Amino acid sequence: MKTLLILGAGTGGTxxxxxxxxxxxxxxxxxxxxxxDEKHYYQPGFLFIPFGIYSQRDVIKPKRNFLPPSVxxxxxxxxxxxxxxxxVILRKDNKVIxxxxxxxxxxxxxxxxxxxxxxxxxxWQKNIFTFYNLEGAVKLANFLKYWKGGRLVLNVxxxxxxCPVAPLEFLFLSDWFFHERGIRDKxxxxxxxxxxxxxxxxxxxxxxxGMLEEKGIHLVPDFNIMEVDNAKQVIRSxxxxxxxxxxxxxxxxxxxxxxIARSNMGDELDFVPTDKHTLRSRDWENIFIxxxxxxxxxxxxxxxxxxxxxxxxxNLLRSIEGLEPLPKFDGHANCFIESGFDxxxxxxxxxxxxxxxxxxxxxxxxxxxxxxxxxxxxxxxxMFRWMYWxxxxxxxxxxxxxxxxxxxxxx
Amino acid sequence: xxxxxxxxxxxxxxxxxxSVWNEExxxxxxxxxxxxxxxxHWEIIRWAREAAADSGKAPTLRxxxxxxxxxxxxxxxxFPKGPxxxxxxxxxxxxxxxxx
Lengths: 411, 100
Ligand SMILES: Cc1cc2nc3c(=O)[nH]c(=O)nc-3n(C[C@H](O)[C@H](O)[C@H](O)COP(=O)(O)OP(=O)(O)OC[C@H]3O[C@@H](n4cnc5c(N)ncnc54)[C@H](O)[C@@H]3O)c2cc1C
Description:
The complex is a heterodimer.
Chain A: E1 2-7, H1 11-23, E2 29-35, E3 39-41, H2 56-59, E4 60-62, E5 72-75, E6 78-82, E7 87-90, E8 96-98, E9 101-104, E10 108-111, E11 128-129, H3 134-146, E12 150-156, H4 166-180, E13 187-192, H5 202-214, E14 217-220, E15 225-229, E16 234-237, E17 242-244, E18 247-251, E19 253-256, H6 258-262, E20 287-289, H7 302-320, E21 333-340, E22 343-349, E23 358-362, E24 366-370, H8 375-392
Parallel strand pairs in A: 1-2, 1-9, 2-5, 9-20, 11-18, 12-13, 12-18, 13-14
Antiparallel strand pairs in A: 3-4, 6-7, 7-8, 10-19, 15-16, 16-17, 21-22, 23-24
Helix pairs in contact in A: 1-7
Chain B: H1 23-32, H2 39-55, H3 61-68, H4 72-78, H5 83-90
């Protein structure tokens, strides 16, 4: 009997388990998936919780429901990976699993403690919050319900973060939320980011930056946070700029899994060195990486994990057959950006081509508009939750191609 | 000091071919971003060139602090605003891939 072991049963791991269960002969292969948490979180939904649009029950479902019965599911912490011995040790009962092939899908996780004064300065979850995990999003929702206004500062601690458009969405939704509450004139909204502009790619950055301005959101670019001064209520950068806040919302440093750190398999942020086109480990031929866990220079997003899926499956199957993996992943990312007032913007890009205006997925027709606000884009975003639970996690066909297309775009 | 005319630069002023780099070019590129190079700067730039020769790309801020032992704070003093970007630029490496 041969073993395919999958670490992490989030977006990427769940998709791989479903696909590989279809491909591998159960007489010959056992598929095991390990995760510490029995609940599956729909993370894109965390964005809507602070504003009371979603509640906890919209974003949690049991992991088991999304995994095929033939897959063995183990709920345990992953202690350490020993890639030279092709084995993994779990925390539960110190169980040892020997594998033939390993898929790493352990994601990206927030570390607010990386910034001095963030969690240890007294303001944490009093007037300093994050919406990047469920607990934080719920606490922020409770705070916002009763907030009378003041200076709201959103800060990104450092890049890369998962879902690099989420900070912009939070800002746009804040503008909408305070309008609805009738207190927009009492709230100052500030965005302090280490990036030189609103976004990482120039054309999109200009358009999204323009939207911030229209909505009266103040941008502080090139702001690299060093510490939070809780007494003075300022965040301070390495070059001694200060930004005052009444309410600080942070997107903390993102790092790969603690298991990757313990196994010494990661880069300086515990992301696993991965070939950016084949998605195979740079160091071990029987290890593939999907989703946020790897260090490929693509966005860390569920949609990207979905575009990686086809390549990871094909290359796993090729390796099992003794063939070389194919360099097929092009860095394709596709993000709906919720922009408030029931509108949204869609961007579509890859390693080589930045987001461009146009129509998607059908050239000239859409129904989605690229790099332009529309109501349809907003419905696309809201539909994404249904598609996520019902199609995407099961590895089903989505109406988008894995490789990016230039059709319908205005270059 | 001025930038040599035919230097292969992209529209953001990054050298597109690290092999044409030399110390004179580094000085000119540094001057362009308002930095006068001291021995401390040179140490970091030389380290960055070696790191890039190994990995094929410009080092990130965290790689630089880990690799040189220079603190982030000090790096911001030496290379104000975006140290990783400025170091990559002066060392004649491509733009760091860090931001997506
Ligand atoms: C606020 C927010 C908004 C977002 N919005 C969008 C969006 O609009 N569109 C989009 O496409 N993406 C969005 N994303 C990103 C998306 O959720 C992630 O990119 C995606 O879930 C990545 O999948 P993954 O499989 O790599 O990791 P995950 O889904 O995070 O799964 C990793 C799994 O590994 C497990 N694990 C890790 N370490 C261990 C260990 N040591 N032991 C045991 N188990 C372990 C975890 O429990 C987890 O279940 C958003 C994310 C956030 C936080």
